[in-house]
Structure formats: C-alpha cells, structure tokens
Design the sequence.
C-alpha cells in the first residue's frame, strides 16, 4: 500500500511539474493593413525646390516617402513632416510615392503628383570653379595621401573637419580611380554625371553593400566594387549616373568667417557611395575639390564622416 501511495505521489508530482512548465500558447495578433492614407504637401513659393509632405494613416507604424524615382525613402512617423529639395530647375510635375507600413510588413500606398517651379542660382564664382565655362570633369586626387578618409563625425568641440583615418596614395580599390565626375550647366540648369568607366563599377563602403545587394555578406573594412547604377536580381536600390546638383549656403560661417557651402547631388554619389547626398565643401579652388559627408551605414552603430578629394582632368 505504501508503495502504491509513493508511486501515485510521484506521478502526481510529475504531472504538476509539467503543468507548471507548460507555457500558454502564443496568440498572434491580427495583421491590420493601414487604411485611410491621407497626404498633404506644401511646395515653397520661393522657387527653392523645397517640398514638405505630411501623411497619416490608421494602423500605420511608419511612413516611407519616395520623393523621386529610385531615391532612398525618407522615413517618418505618421503625422511627422518629411522634407526634400529638388535641384532640377524648371516647371515640371514630380511623382511622389507614399507608403504606410503597419504591423508585420502590411502596407498601403499612394502616388501623387506635385507641380514644381524651381529656379536655383549658384554663385557665378563658385560655379566657375566647379564647372568651368560650362563643363568640368574631376577625378580622385590619388597621388596624395588622405584623398579618401573616414572617422567619427563629431568630437567634444563639435563637428570634426579632419579624418581619423586617411588612405595612402593610390590605395583605394582601382575601380574607383577610373570614375569621372562631371559638373555642367546651361543657364540655370545644373547637371551632374558620374562615369564609372568601362567596367561600370564604383566603390561601395562595406557597411552599406547590403543597401544595394541584400544577399551580400560584407567583409568588415573591405569596401567592394559594384555596379549600382542599374537594378538586377539582387539589388533593390540604384543611383542615377545623370542627375542634377546644387551648391548653396545656409548662412553658416567657418572659423575664418567665410560662408560654408554645401554640394547637393540628387540620388547619386561622388564616386564612393556613402549614403549622403549633401556634402560640406571644405576646399573649392580651380584645382582642388575637398568635401565632407556624414552618414550612418547599415552595419555601423554611429554616424561616420567621409572625406573625398578630387582634382580636375587636365
């Protein structure tokens, strides 16, 4: 009898233990597609090309605004304004795509057209330096150390204007050195062209390769040569090799009380793709162009500053 009681007690203990360890069945929430996508736009009336778009949608977690075909989306929360500046002068209609994403990747989208009247002017002296009398081409200043550099974007005193790491002369991957950057203008229309050479390859930072090729397996600190100007089976984004540019100042002064100028390129890159479309001009003379850009790569946790230096083709 005692043995039976012991066996029963043991079985009961096992049963109670199993019941205690059993977890509740996970309950999946219903995936709700965002609805009632509403979009409002404001086009600045000063012909600056600035557009602000605000979108809301029921059950949306975030909003992706694609201001120009193939351009990287501007990601905002519902009701948060998204801004963009068009650098192509003229009167034209521009297609904008807005996608509202909900839980589990559900989405709804709309296309809208905005009418633009853009008249952008670049200071004639600045324009002459970068684009000559109508067209001027630049290549990497490869014979000089530091023609490419990178490092932390900020230090304790503010923005960093020098790289933490500077490349040695001729030390970039050779696919970068056959790239030619051409700036041109006709009236108030400012054009930019990136010629990536006969191999159609340009240099992409290792931490951002997956932006174009999601299935890639980047090797840390090893930048790669890629054709990022046209889509293929694995890439989801691309750059424009023929686009427009703008040089502008926002009233900021450097340490010598000179205006700080910025170079903006629509959906393209200055040979090395680093994700930035706006570059701070550090030096611009008839014979030298040095710029700084900042961006947070996909596989980096901090903002990175990139430094590029170019010389004109003789």
Sequence:
């Amino acid at each position: 009898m005692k043995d039976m009681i012991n066996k029963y007690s043991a079985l009961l203990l096992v049963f109670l233990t199993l019941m205690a360890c059993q977890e509740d069945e996970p309950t999946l929430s219903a995936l709700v597609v965002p609805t009632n996508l509403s979009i409002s736009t404001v086009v600045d009336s000063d012909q600056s090309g600035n557009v602000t778009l605000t979108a809301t949608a029921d059950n949306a977690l975030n909003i992706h605004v694609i201001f120009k075909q193939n351009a990287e989306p501007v990601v905002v929360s519902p009701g948060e304004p998204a801004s963009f500046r068009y650098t192509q002068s003229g009167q034209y209609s521009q297609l904008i795509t807005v996608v509202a994403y909900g839980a589990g990747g559900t989405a709804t989208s709309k296309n809208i057209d905005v009418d633009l009247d853009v008249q952008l002017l670049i200071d004639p002296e600045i324009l002459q330096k970068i684009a000559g009398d109508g067209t001027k081409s630049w290549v990497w200043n490869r014979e000089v150390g530091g023609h490419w550099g990178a490092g932390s974007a900020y230090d304790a005193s503010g923005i960093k204007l020098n790289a933490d790491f500077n490349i040695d002369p001729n030390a970039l991957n050779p696919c970068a050195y056959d790239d030619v950057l051409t700036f041109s203008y006709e009236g108030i229309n400012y054009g930019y062209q990136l010629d990536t050479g006969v191999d159609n390859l340009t240099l992409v930072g290792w931490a951002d390769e997956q932006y174009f090729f999601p299935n890639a397996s980047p090797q840390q600190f090893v930048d790669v040569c890629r054709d990022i100007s046209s889509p293929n089976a694995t890439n989801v984004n691309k750059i424009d090799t023929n686009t427009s540019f703008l040089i502008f100042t926002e009233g900021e002064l450097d340490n010598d009380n000179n205006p700080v100028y910025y170079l903006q390129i629509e959906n393209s890159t200055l040979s090395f793709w680093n994700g930035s479309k706006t570059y701070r001009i550090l030096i611009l003379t008839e014979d030298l162009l040095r710029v700084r850009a900042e961006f947070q790569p996909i596989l980096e946790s901090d903002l990175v500053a990139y430094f590029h230096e170019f010389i004109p083709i003789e």
Notes: Helices lie at 2-21, 124-131, 174-177, 209-212. The chain is about 10% helix and 40% strand. The CA atoms of residues 123 and 247 lie 8 Å apart. The first helix runs from residue 2 to 21.
